[in-house]
Every structure is written in structure tokens, then in C-alpha cells.
Design brief:
This is Cache domain-containing protein. The chain contains four helices and ten strands; from the N terminus they run ααβββαβββαββββ. By secondary structure, it is an alpha+beta fold. The protein folds into two domains: 168 residues, PAS domain (Beta-Lactamase); 60 residues, no CATH class.
Length: 247
């Protein structure tokens, strides 16, 4: 059983790494462009980032099974010609890439304040990559998604994040086969106990599992994912039912 559990964990970690590998290409290009402009003594402007659109569109149209949108979201004030800035491409219509149109007018009722979004604040505060969700994306796809984000930096300064929105239902198809190989009912949960995937029809994505403040839940085995994936955990029921958090 230990071998099956390890194989399941490796499968999950490989799926996560695959998404971050694609994000890394966009992040590396932005940081290269930024370093070039700073090296010339110039403050980067939005026009300097046009090449990111080609990379994002390529990711969205090349062998894409689950990425709904990808790009960069920048820290307010880092660009020379605008305050808040988002170069984010998403799929529309029959799977064609388009720019995500967001309202950055702070006096508007529909103002999109990404500065307070967890997928933005956590990379800024921790300098670590993060996966946020599942949650409903009301601004882009109106679907249950996970947001993957990686901090962007130049010479120690936080520039923003490179990220991707992933369709949870499609991503589950990669995660569930490994979970089905386990002997016990099992959940893959995030740091707050939200279910990402499970091997039992009794649990749906987005439901909350009751995690204790310390230690493992009674009758369960909890295995954190390795490295920077450690905020996700595999929970297996050994001799008791998995308990929902209805609070």
C-alpha cells in the first residue's frame, strides 16, 4: 500500500509541476525583459511586454487540456506608463485566445482589486509559488478553477506574479486515477481543507474537510505533498468516516 500511496503522490506532484513549468516560461521572459530595461537605466513600460502575449497564446492553444487563462499580473506602480496592469490571455468562443478585460478604475463599482487576492498576496509576502482554490472564477471563465501563481522578481524587488487558471474538473482527471488505486477512501485537500479531488462519490470538489489545528484527524492518515506543494495534503480514512466541516 505504501508503494501505491507514493505513486499517487508522485502523480499529483508531477501534474502540479507541469503547470508551473509552463508558467516558468512566461516568468523567465518577463524577468529577462525587465532586467534588460533596468540595465539600460529605463523604467519598463507596458509596450515592452508584448512578447508575453505570444507565449501565453501558445500555451493556451498547444496541447491544452485544462488551462483556461495565463499571463502576468504586476504590482501597482512598477510600470512607467500605468498603475495596475494585467497581461492575461484567456480562451473565448471556440477556444481562441483573447485579452481578459478588467476594470482598474478604483471609483467604479466593478473595480477589480487584484492586490488583495490570495494568489497575489501570498507570492508577494512569501516569495513562494502557490496554488489557490478551488473557487468560482466570476471574472474570466465562470468555472470552478485553481489559480497557480509564481512570484516575479528583479534584483530582489517584487514585480507581480506569473500564473495560470486551471479548470478543476479537467485537472481532476489527472489526479483521480492515482487516488482510485488507494485502499481507503481518500481526499486531496488544500491548506484550508477544501477538497481538490477524491476517490469516493461521497465528496465533491470544493467541500471542506474538518482538519484539526494540530496533528491528524482521528482515524485518518495525512500525508503532505513534497516541497513547495506541502500546502496540499492527502487524507486517507483508515477506520472512521471522513468528517465535513460545516462551519
Amino acid at each position: 500500500m505504501a508503494e501505491r500511496r507514493q505513486a499517487c503522490l508522485w502523480r499529483i506532484e508531477a501534474a502540479l509541476d507541469g503547470v508551473f513549468d509552463d508558467i516558468e516560461r512566461i516568468a523567465a521572459e518577463l524577468e529577462r525583459l525587465w532586467e534588460g530595461q533596468v540595465g539600460l537605466g529605463k523604467a519598463p513600460a507596458s509596450a515592452d511586454l508584448k512578447s508575453l502575449r505570444t507565449l501565453a497564446d501558445d500555451r493556451l492553444t498547444r496541447d491544452n487540456r485544462w488551462v483556461l487563462g495565463t499571463g502576468v499580473v504586476l504590482e501597482p506602480g512598477v510600470l512607467a506608463d500605468c498603475d495596475m496592469f494585467c497581461e492575461w490571455r484567456h480562451l473565448v468562443g471556440e477556444g481562441k485566445p483573447a485579452q481578459l478585460d478588467l476594470n482598474f478604475n478604483r471609483s467604479s463599482d466593478s473595480y477589480y482589486n487584484y492586490r488583495d487576492m490570495p494568489w497575489f498576496t501570498q507570492p508577494r509576502e512569501t516569495s513562494q509559488r502557490v496554488v489557490e482554490g478551488p473557487y468560482i472564477d466570476l471574472y474570466g471563465q465562470d468555472a470552478y478553477i485553481l489559480t497557480f501563481a509564481r512570484p516575479l522578481q528583479c534584483r530582489g524587488d517584487f514585480l507581480g506574479i506569473a500564473g495560470a487558471d486551471v479548470h478543476l474538473g479537467r485537472f481532476e482527471r489527472i489526479l483521480v486515477p492515482g487516488l482510485l488505486q488507494l485502499e481507503h477512501d481518500a481526499l486531496l485537500v488544500n491548506a484550508s481543507g477544501r477538497v481538490i479531488a477524491s476517490n469516493t462519490p461521497g465528496w465533491l470538489s470544493g467541500e471542506r474537510f474538518r482538519m484539526p489545528d494540530k496533528g491528524s484527524p482521528p482515524g485518518c492518515r495525512v500525508t503532505p505533498l513534497a516541497g513547495q506543494h506541502a500546502h496540499w495534503q492527502l487524507v486517507e480514512s483508515l477506520d472512521s468516516a471522513l468528517v465535513r466541516d460545516d462551519g
